[in-house]
Amino acid sequence: MQHRSTPLARSLGAAALLSAAVAWGTASIQEYADGPRPDVLLPLALAAVFVVGWLPAARSAPLVKPLPTTAPPRDTVPGKRARAAGGERPARR
User: Fold this and answer.
1) Residue 51's closest CA among 75, 3, 19, 73?
2) What are the tens digits of pLDDT across the range 33-66?
3) Per the confidence metrics, is the pTM higher than 0.90?
4) Contact 69, 75 (CB under 8 A)
5) Distance (Å, rounded) from C-alpha 43 to C-alpha 52?
């Protein structure tokens, strides 16, 4: 079953995506530095923190309830010709 989306899960997921996009954008700017680049590492670390928060928020959301059935299941699919006995296809005209 699927989980219903909550505002907390949506905001944490959006923040993780935004942080990853910022890290990707800053990495595309060429900089000649000898050491690690904090302008890329900080958004990546934030994205990781947001994902760690998003996982339990998404998993603890309430489940989606299935819709009630209104009719019995059909034996055949509408618009398709029924197969002959034994699973053989009917002859084409």
Assistant:
1) 19
2) 788 888 899 999 999 999 999 999 988 888 888 8
3) no
4) no
5) 14
